[in-house]
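> example.struct
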């Protein structure tokens, strides 16, 4: 990455942080750093609408948070920011346990609290992890890309919020240890290269399509693909999904469903990225890899003839109830029950989710998120919104 490319990336980062509420005047400036090709670093201070950029050495004394590059040699991006809930965790706890699957995957079993922004503390807290809380600073995030660092910041702030708000309803429970360790290992080993090079991946897909003469689609299929893209982007804008966490599926006909691909940020999603999956076998040919939750969607379509679309999100306030393992009263057509624990992408997850759903249009997934469904994509989207609003009301926000 060149300095010019870094400056453009910082501008995009600032816009995304503002959207997520992580770049607000009252929370102070955000420091960001990108490693250049020659090993030097470009550092930006984001303060409201102002951005100050300077090129520095690898770990100068004036910017101690850059030492994280030495501790995490695979990291290409750093973020140091306060957030809203993160400082309350940083100043009151020694570590925060993973109480939602997404934190377990991207951070680990715990997020440690560094007592100061100094090498020994950072090394202790970042060992085996890519993020930590920092006393008097909030949180420090490392990432193999700026996208991964941004997602890490959103999820760590969300984890802090979940822990604090869940105290209103009896407190959050940690993700079962074996599940948390397994999910973290899988995430670290198979983090999608799509987000590390989204532009080139899309270009290769387009070239492959041209070589085959382009896909043959019905008007209905093309319309549904466009609806999936539009719905996915709305979910991001409304804060109901973070990064690549969450997935959508629509019943195409008796033999196929359309679903979002694995590991691709919704901001980059196009109709051609949507994957056509055979319901009977879950096969998808030479397309992009579909969401890892394709089994959950397929099993729901099989169990419920009235369901034409399903959305699984990691909505923030629904996540508070999922972490506390409590139902949400009211909301859509009835209370949203909390399903029992199951590892993502497994047959057990399908069974417990379908049981918790019954004939309703939504349920919570323990320590995980929320599953909403409907006759079509728009009704499923409305259920997602209604569930989050019901959670907001029950939490008194």
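> example.seq
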């Amino acid at each position: 990455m060149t300095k010019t490319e870094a400056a453009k990336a910082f501008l995009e980062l600032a816009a995304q942080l503002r959207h997520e509420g992580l770049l607000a005047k009252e929370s102070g400036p955000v420091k960001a750093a990108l490693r250049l090709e020659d090993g030097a670093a470009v550092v930006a201070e984001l303060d409201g609408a102002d951005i100050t950029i300077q090129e520095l050495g690898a770990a100068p004394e004036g910017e101690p948070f850059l030492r994280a590059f030495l501790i995490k040699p695979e990291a290409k991006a750093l973020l140091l920011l306060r957030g809203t809930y993160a400082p309350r965790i940083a100043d009151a706890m020694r570590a925060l346990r993973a109480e939602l699957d997404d934190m377990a995957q991207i951070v680990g079993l715990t997020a440690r609290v560094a007592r100061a922004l100094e090498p020994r503390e950072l090394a202790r807290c970042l060992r085996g992890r890519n993020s930590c809380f920092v006393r008097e600073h909030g949180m420090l995030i490392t990432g193999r890309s700026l996208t991964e660092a941004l997602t890490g910041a959103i999820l760590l702030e969300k984890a802090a919020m979940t822990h604090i708000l869940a105290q209103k309803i009896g407190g959050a429970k940690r993700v079962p240890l074996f599940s948390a360790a397994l999910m973290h290992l899988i995430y670290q080993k198979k983090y999608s290269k799509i987000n590390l090079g989204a532009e080139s991946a899309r270009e290769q897909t387009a070239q492959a399509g041209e070589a085959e003469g382009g896909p043959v689609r019905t008007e209905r299929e093309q319309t549904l693909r466009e609806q999936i893209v539009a719905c996915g982007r709305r979910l991001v804008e409304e804060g109901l999904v973070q990064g690549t966490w969450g997935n959508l599926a629509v019943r195409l006909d008796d033999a196929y469903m359309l679903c979002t691909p694995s590991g691709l940020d919704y901001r980059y999603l196009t109709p051609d990225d949507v994957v056509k999956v055979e319901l009977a076998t879950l096969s998808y040919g030479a397309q992009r890899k579909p969401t890892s939750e394709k089994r959950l969607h397929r099993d729901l379509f099989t169990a419920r003839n009235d369901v034409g679309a399903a959305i699984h999100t990691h909505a923030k306030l629904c996540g508070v109830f999922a972490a506390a393992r409590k139902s949400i009263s009211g909301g859509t057509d009835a209370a949203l029950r909390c399903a029992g624990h199951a590892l993502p992408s497994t047959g057990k997850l399908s069974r417990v989710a379908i049981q918790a759903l019954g004939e309703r249009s939504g349920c919570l997934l323990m320590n995980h998120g929320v599953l909403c469904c409907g006759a079509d994509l728009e009704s499923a989207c409305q259920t997602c919104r209604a569930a989050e609003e019901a959670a907001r009301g029950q939490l008194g926000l």
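> remarks
The chain has two domains: 3-190, 217-395.
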